[in-house]
Amino acid sequence: MQIIRTISELRAWRATRGRVAFVPTMGNLHEGHMALVRAARANADDVAVSIFVNRLQFGQGEDFDAYPRTLQADADKLSDLGVAVLFAPDDAELYPHTTQHYNVEPPGLQNELCGRFRPGHFRGVATVVLKLFNIVKADVACFGKKDFQQLTIIRNMVEELNLDIQIVPVDTGRAADGLALSSRNAYLSAAERAQAPQLYRELCTIRDALAVGRNDFAALENNAVAALNAQGWQVDYVEIRCAADLGVARGDERHMVVLAAARLGQTRLIDNVEVER
Ligand code: PAF
Description:
Layout: E1 2-4, H1 7-15, E2 20-25, H2 31-41, E3 46-51, H3 71-80, E4 85-87, H4 91-94, H5 114-117, H6 121-136, E5 140-144, H7 148-160, E6 166-170, H8 190-195, H9 198-211, H10 217-230, E7 234-242, E8 255-264, E9 267-276
Parallel strand pairs: 1-4, 2-3, 2-5, 3-4, 5-6
Antiparallel strand pairs: 7-8, 8-9
């Protein structure tokens, strides 16, 4: 596996390749990322993975400085999986203009759900993803469903800006007790880690209620919030949305998604489950 640090070298590599699948990451890779890489391999001849901790998507007081940077261990894992290229630019390579730069403003959805609690986050995500798409010029890019709002915003961006890339969604990887795999799980204390699967269980309770036809969305959401708060979580939101576009669910959708974000101590966790009916 080649480790490439500059845009010009990455472009030179791309020019020699056929069908390429791309997995953008911020590193600190876990089994959930490995599933993205496997999906990428199934979709192309060559896989390119990027590792870049994107400061634009971190708000003030968030964990940009503390975010685990584990490049060598990550490179070893990717190499074992047959990845062709690891693109690991530094900050100055992607953002040479420190005072001003262009931004991608995802309309509407960027201020809902996680966007209400992380202003500017999805602007930062969309901006870096568009830059990476323009650099890597992949045919396909794989994104995890765990970040369902991110996936939806990226799909909208690809459609609205007519980007020539196919987005492949990949199911959320989970630990045996149901906790969604996330780099931020590493921040949990032992006691918090034992409690963390409750978030998934509350989402499953709502999923099961929806699946048998309940439509009292507010009551289902409020019950989950109360159950989590009672166990010491600080809940940002639990919401039932339409899976196709994350619009507010009306009750006649066949495909919905229940999304949540909540803090255990200092750690903010997100998760979601889909419901077909
Ligand atoms: O999902 C992530 O790890 C990041 O948001 C992404 C897509 C790599 C952009 O920085």
